[in-house]
Every structure is written in C-alpha cells, then in structure tokens.
Amino acid sequence: MHTDCRTRMAKATYADLVKTVSGALTRINKKSEHAEDQKMVLATHRVAPTQSKHCSRIYLRGLSAVSRTSQPNATELALRERFTEVSAMVRARRKDLNKISQDQLDFIAQKDLATGKKTMRAYLWKVCGEEYDAAHQG
Question: How far apart are CA 16 and CA 22, in angstroms?
Fold first, then answer.
C-alpha cells in the first residue's frame, strides 16, 4: 500500500494476476467480544474517468460504520416480510412442474420488450411480487 503525501489518500496496488478488488476484504465479527477492536477492510475500484490515475482505494471501517443505530420502522418491516414471502414463492415456483413450461413461454414472449425482464429469475420475481401485492392489498 502506498500513501501519497499530498492527498493523504491510500492507493492500493495489486499483483499482476489480480486486476481489481472490490468489496469487503475482511469483515467484523459482530458476535465477538472484541468486535469494537476489529476493523473492516473495504476495497473499491472505480472505472469512471477522473483526474487521478488511481482508481482503487482501500478503507478501514470500525464497528460503528456497520452497526445499525435505529430500530427498523413499520415500512421496513413490511418490506422485509414481502421479500421473505416473495423469495419463498419464487423458490417454490421454480420447482413446480405444472408451471415451468408456461413460465418459460411467458418469459420468452416478454424478454425482448422494453420493460421485459432479461433473466428467468427476474421474471419470476416480478410475477411472484405482483401475486403477493395483489393478495396483500389493503
């Protein structure tokens, strides 16, 4: 790792075999009694044109950067419940032999449309999400 004295920003230089690294390199074990002492190492890679030649950065973050400070509100809890239910519906529908053929035909028919979903998984999430919303309208 190299530190530029003028900008005080860290620059990451990787081995020739590694082109880019992006995301958390190490995580904080929140259940550990030493969680407050641990640091998360986060690497970012930016491909947008900038004034700088350096597009990779590494950051250290403590527990306060990854810990939630407020309780989830009712809207967030409803969204979590929706996600859980729709996810289960998608898993079940992918295995349902009675619906696979029709789902494949419907997917192919819509995928080239401007608003069409490009993957079968995305299509099933859309369909199951619409079914969930229709069943849970207040």
Answer: 16
pLDDT digits (tens, 9 = 90+) for 67-97: 678 899 999 999 999 999 999 999 999 999 9
Reading the block at residue 68, the tokens are 């939630």
Neighbours of 38 (CB within 10 A): 16
Query: 31 phi and psi, to 5 degrees?
Result: -85, -10
Residue 107 CB neighbour total at 10 angstroms: 20
The residue type of 77 is L
> What is the chain's length?
138
Answer for the pair 1, 13: CB distance below 8 angstroms, yes or no.
Answer: yes
Q: Which of 86, 10, 21 is nearest to 54 (CA)?
A: 10
